[in-house]
Amino acid sequence: MVEILEEELRETKEQLKEIKQKLRSTDAELRKAADINGILQDQVANERNARDREYQRHRQVVKEHSRTLAKMNEKHENVVDLLETRSAELRVAQTYLTKADNLSDADILRMFEALNSHIYQLSAHLADNIQLDRGSLSTPQTWITEATEILDGVVGAELIQLLAKSPHSELPVCIQFALQSRMVGFANMVISTWNFHDLEHNKLYNDVYMQLRASEDPAVSGRWRALTVTSLRALTLNETTIPRLHDHLAIFITSITLLAGLTAAPVQAHQQIISRYGGELITLVDIMLQLQRAIGEEIISSQINLVVYLSGETFNPEHMEDYNAGGRPCTPRESDARAPVVVLGTMSLGVTRIEKKAMGGNAAGQGTWVSVTLLKPKVVLNTILDELQISGA
Asked: Alpha carbon 315 to chain centroid distance?
């Protein structure tokens, strides 16, 4: 029994010895693993630090790039703003420097011929259809005086006398001459105006323009005129201006009919004209306003002038046409040697183009201004008095 126990003790000791050896071996492996783990942790820490440093470096680079990009974007925006500013300035400069006209001479002539045609047609229609009653009741002298004051300076004394004395039932052409002459004068005023509120200021604007025309290139003076007319038109041509123009034209027509023998009261006569011919007056004024805009704003390289001759001016076939001759040259009468042929009134607007002919080597603003006749005005002459057999007029 003892031997068995001793044998088991020896075996147990051997097993314990083996276990101790295994523990020592495992402990050695653990220490080795700990050393390796420490090395690996150091390596990981070093790599992490290196990566952190690299990240910080890249972050700094990104910040620098962002700042650089922001500066470049700011410079780009500044360049774009400068480009837009310079482009706008260039467009303005180009606008001033261009000499291109939006309308040709043919376009202008068509518009003026349409206006002259409307004036003729309305005048003839009025002269043929106005009911006069000169014999039954005399026109009050106060009406005649007031009408004469309204018409004086455009229609002229001889035409006014024709209205007051001639038998219009037989010769309505007298009324037609007076109507055409006054409408032509009215059209000249509307088309030539700079602004529609205060006509007295037109001279000031025209003086400024003439000074610019004398000292600057036509592209500059013409563009100034166009911009000024555009601005003044926007400021002064409104919803009350056009009806006022219609009313003024109706007043002139009424004055002529009163002088011709219409016995209605001035207010009643004026209302009749507005009622019966309001549409024609609107059309006529619209054409005038279109022409005012066209020659003021659409023509840059030159200046379009209207030509109207007042009563009493000497007839010159080089610059005007005898309305009653139908375009044929005026044949002087024997009495013309003693008394020159003079204008009674202008029946249709004339048109000239004033342009500068540059002189070689001259600076801007220098050159010779020449006038080119586009359309001669047609005038009725005092020779018509004999043809109408009206004496003492």
From this structure: 37
In the chain, what are the domain boundaries?
1-33, 104-387
Q: 46-67: per-residue pLDDT in tens?
A: 888 888 888 998 889 899 999 9
Count CB atoms within 10 A of the CB of residue 340.
10
Distance of CA 121 to the CA centre of its chain: 30
158-176 confidence digits (pLDDT tens):
777 767 766 555 568 888 8
Helix (H, G, I), strand (E, B) or coil at 313: coil
Confidence of residue 328 (pLDDT cuts 50, 70, 90): very low
Q: List Cβ neighbours of 61 (8 Å cut-off, separation of 6 or more).
A: none
pLDDT at 147: 67
Backbone CA torsion sign across 382, 340, 328, 354: negative
In the block, residue with structure tokens 């000497």: 314
Tokens of 70: 């922001």
DSSP assignment, residue 344?
E
Number of Cβ within a 10 Å radius of residue 104: 10
User: How far is residue 281's CA from residue 290's CA, in Å, rounded to a whole number?
Assistant: 14
Q: Are 266 and 146 in contact (CB under 8 A)?
A: yes
Q: Check if the beta carbon of residue 290 is closer than 8 Å to that of residue 323.
A: no
How far apart, in whole angstroms, are the C-alpha atoms of residue 123 and residue 170?
A: 16
Higher-confidence residue of 138 and 293: namely: 293
pLDDT at 325 over 80: no
Residues in CB range of 202: below 8 A, 6 or more apart: 192, 193, 194, 195
Residue 143 has pLDDT above 50, yes or no: yes
DSSP assignments along 117-168, one per residue: HHHHHHHHHHHHH----TTTSPPPHHHHHHHHHHHTTTT-HHHHHHHHHS-T
Q: How many CA atoms lie within 13 A of 23 on its CB side?
A: 6
For the stretch 332-373, pLDDT in tens is 444 444 568 888 889 999 999 998 876 654 544 467 889 999
Residue 264, both tokens: 């209605």
Question: CA dist 216 to 27, 220, 363, Å?
Answer: 109, 6, 9
Q: Per-residue pLDDT for 390 more than 50? A: no
In this structure, are residues 312 and 145 in contact, taking their beta carbons and an 8 Å threshold?
A: no
